[in-house]
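[Automated response] Your request has been received and processed.

Submitted sequence:
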Amino acid sequence: MKYLTYLIVLIVLSCGKDEDTLPVITNELLGEWQLEATKISPGDIVENWTMVANGPKFEFKANGSYTHNEKACGGIVNGIFSTNDQVLTLRYHCENNAIETNFNMNFSEGNLILSNVGCIEECSYKYRKIN
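Generated structure:
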């Protein structure tokens, strides 16, 4: 009987988990962010941010979903996100293909700084919170 109880608990805990469902997010990432500046290097050291006018926006919601208004795959991107050890993972579908992108994430002076994981040169994006 003891083993049957363990088996039932194991089955209940393993059921109902959808790969596209993420835990509720409650951190400073939530809200709407607009790209303000970039540091993109073709191989040299980049010390100063290059300002961006009317940059694209991210909106991160507490249910783990996000939107990005930069046109990709023919339209606005709607997907899901997660954070882990200062890495932001974005997932969305494009033409029936699942896409996953990872960014190193940190906050500096109220700004969200994202940089591509694996980028050898400087490739950073500075977002300011607008909502």
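Summary generated for your ticket: DSSP finds one helix and nine strands in the chain. The first strand starts at residue 31 and ends at 40.
If you did not submit this request, please reply to this message.
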